[in-house]
Structure formats: C-alpha cells, structure tokens
Amino acid sequence: MTVDTCSDDSLVEFPADGDLVAEMADRGWGDGLPLVAPTPERVDAMLSGPNEPGGPSLDPDEVISILPPRFGEASRRILAVNAVMAGCLPVHFPVLVAAVRALARPEVNLRGINATTHCVAPLLIVHGEIARTGGYNGGLGAFGPGNRANATTGRALRLVLLHVAGATIGAGDASTQGGPAKYGFCIAENMDASPWPTYPTTVGVNAPSAVTIYCGEAPHNVHDMESDNPSQILNKVASAMATTAQNNACISQGEYLVALCPEHAATCAEAGWSRHDVASYLFQKARLPAAELKEAFSLRAWPPWMNSLNDDELAPMTGDQKNIRILVVGGPGKHSSVVPSWGMTRSVTVAVDQQVSC
Amino acid sequence: MLIYRPDGAVAQDLDRSAPELAPALPVLAGCRIGILDNRKPNADVLLHRLANRLVERTGAIVVRADTKNAALPCEDQVLGLLAEQVDLVLTGTAD
C-alpha cells in the first residue's frame, strides 16, 4: 500500500469478498451501479496522472472547490477517489478537476441546481486537445452510450455531486422525478465537423483544452431531413424552444444550448451564416404570444421590458440572444437537439490544466 | 480491503449543513413575526394564512418580506432588516 498524507478516517475497511455496491449503499454512497473499489493504489495511480515523470507535483489535499449543499471539500484526492469509483482513466482526471472548478463558480448556482425539484443536471462539454487525447466522443452517438471517456467522466462528476456536494435524493436533491442525465451527462464538441471557431473562443476562453458546464434538461431532438436552407432547419429548432413546458418560459435569464448536428451546421455555414447569425435568428423566431406565457406563469422572472409587452405581442423565450449557445455535436444524420436550461444558472467555460499529477 | 471514503471533509468555516437555530420563544403573544416569502407558488398562501392564525391567537405583529427569487439565497439586506424588525421568521416552503 502506498498511502501518503491522509488522515486515518479517510480510509474504511470493507470485506474483500463482500458486495461493494451493497456495502457502499449502506453508507449512502454510490449511484446504484457497480463501482470500482477506490483502493489507495488505484487512487494514487489516478493522482499520478498521465504526465511525464519529474514534472511539477501538486498537493493532493489542495481543495479545488467547496460544493453545496453539503459544503464538502473537493480535494484532488477526493476527486480521484470518485474518478476511480466511476471507472475513469488517469487521462480523464484533468477534465474532472476542471469541471469541478467550473461547477463551483457562483453563476452556476450549484446549491440551487442540486436542491431544486427540477430535473436539471450539469452537462459537461469537453473541448479541444483533451477531447482528442482523452478519447471523448463528440461524433456519432455523442450523448451515449458506448464511450468510456464520456460515460465515466460524466458519472464521476455525478458521484462528486452525490458524495462531496451531498446531492443525495431527498436530503440534498429534491428533484420530483429525477432524470437519466443525473447518471452521467458528458459530451465533446465536434470540432472536426464544425464550420465555426471552437465554442470556448466565443466566450473568451483561448486554451488548448477547455470544459463547459451547462446545467439543463435532457436533450430534446429536432429532426429535419428535407430542408436545404438554414431558416427551415432553424424554424424547427425554434419550435422546440418555444414551449411553456420548460423553465426558460418564465425565467428570461435562462440559456439554451442548441447542439447542431454537423449536417445542419454545414447547411447554415454554406449559406454564409455564422454562429452569431444562427443565435440571432433563433432569438427572433423562438417566441410565444405574451398572453400565453403570462397565463401559464403568474410568477415570472422577467425584466420590465418583457413584462410590459402587450398580450398580442410575441415574447422571446429568453431575454437576450447571447443566451442562445450554439455548438456542433454528433455524426452523420440530420438530428440536432435543444437542451433547455433550469433557468437560474449560467454556463461556465474554463481551461483544462493538464498538469494535475501529484 | 481498505478503500478511501468518497465524501471527504465538510468545510468547517462554511458548514451550513447544521445551522445553529435561535432559541425558541417561550410565548408568542405580542411577538413580531416575519413572513419571508420565497416566491414559490402558494408560499404566500400558506405563510400568510399561518401568520393570520397566529395574529388571531396571540396578537402578534406581522412583518412581510420577499426574496427576489426562489432559486437564489435570500439577500443579506432582507435578512438584516428582518433581524432588526422581528422576533421570529416563518419561511421555508417548496413547490
């Protein structure tokens, strides 16, 4: 055993021939699926990372973030424990660390995300070089299943929320129905098939690798197999956005993530549309009569200008076109998706520090 | 088999998992009661009805305040005003 600086109470004894899932569940740990035992040897290997020997070492007990509602300390070591349990490889660990940094940013509002009755889950989007070296899938079937990087890193993030943040059903997570995205929700941006600059550059992050945390629902499919121009495709996307059956309808600061498939994105780009043009068009088209929205929600988190719209005017589904986030995801085929927001949260993009070995 | 715990420590200086409650008031008669409406649907109905019953029974004085949004913590300014103006606060509703 190669246990280094850790307190005795950070280790627990489990029967070697016992049912690890059951034993952990008895302590309130795990997500219901089989787990990899976080032995000291495996956690040390995760912390050692994929970097060259002799590189600068980092403190494994440095607290990366403090996560509500439990206000647990997410140290590198604790993150490595959860990464091992989820089945991550060391090459995935820098992505998890960056994701946890992003989660703790105040604009994400993690306490609300975890505590709400809504089904919201943090979607982890991986960008750039680490998406390639880590084996993350932004292509065919990106939302899953079948790719280890996406599946285990997304799951590790959920385990961190369960264990460190305390987002356990009932005690720290009041989600009325829960949701499949709460098991794991991780994709990569498909830069090879994107006609536009990489997403992080649009939010001011210029780094070889980055992650975005966007807290929303499970994706809603938009299929268009016949259109040969941007407006026809995007009218369907706008239709998926313009509904009272989502929090965006009553919370104007809510964002939308529009994940265009490569073929839909190509149709837009070949017609000369930039990412900004797509967002501008959707802002104009994704609208409902103000009267319908007011009737559906007596309590609305809207700015004064939206509340003053006449009933017969069309109200936008979000208060600013900058709230419509566009990226390219998926493989061959003509299916895009819309990921509505929980509302009281903002997406965050941070660079990935690939030097995380300890 | 020895394994690591996956939960780790709770931040000591930020531990809000078990906040310390103010001591209970021995009698409510003549008290000043704050209603902190978190703007969840029906929170106003429940809290105001409860407050009205207390007023009828005890002669308490009611002070009403709202949070801006149910999904965000109550503003410090609102909490500060309530701390100055009331003896106890009724709040804490969900959907």
Protein architecture, described:
The complex is a heterodimer of chains A (358) and B (95). By secondary structure, chain A is α+β, with helices and mostly antiparallel strands. Helix content of chain A is 31%, strand content 17%. Chain A is built from 13 helices and 13 strands. In chain A, the strands form four sheets. In chain A, strands 5-4-6-13 form a four-stranded mixed β-sheet. A four-stranded mixed β-sheet of chain A has the order 7-12-8-11. Chain A has a two-stranded antiparallel sheet with strand order 2-3. In chain A, strand 2 and strand 3 form a beta hairpin. The longest helix of chain A is centred in the middle third of the chain and has 16 residues, at 148-163. The radius of gyration of chain A is 21 Å and the shape is globular. Residues 1-6 of chain A have low confidence and may be disordered. In chain B, strands 3-2-4 form a three-stranded parallel β-sheet, sandwiched between helices. Chain B has two helices and four strands; from the N terminus they run ββαβαβ. By secondary structure, chain B is an alpha/beta fold. The model of chain B has no long low-confidence stretch (mean pLDDT 82). Chain B has helices at residues 43-58, 76-85; strands at residues 2-4, 32-37, 61-66, 88-90. The chains are: A alpha+beta (358), B alpha/beta (95). Chain A binds chain B through residues 1, 6, 9-16, 29, 37-40, 43, 63, 66, 68-75, 77-78, 81-82, 85, 109, 111-112, 116-117, 159, 163-164, 166, 174, 176, 298-299, 301, 342-344, and chain B through 1-11, 14-17, 39, 41, 69, 71-73, 94-95.
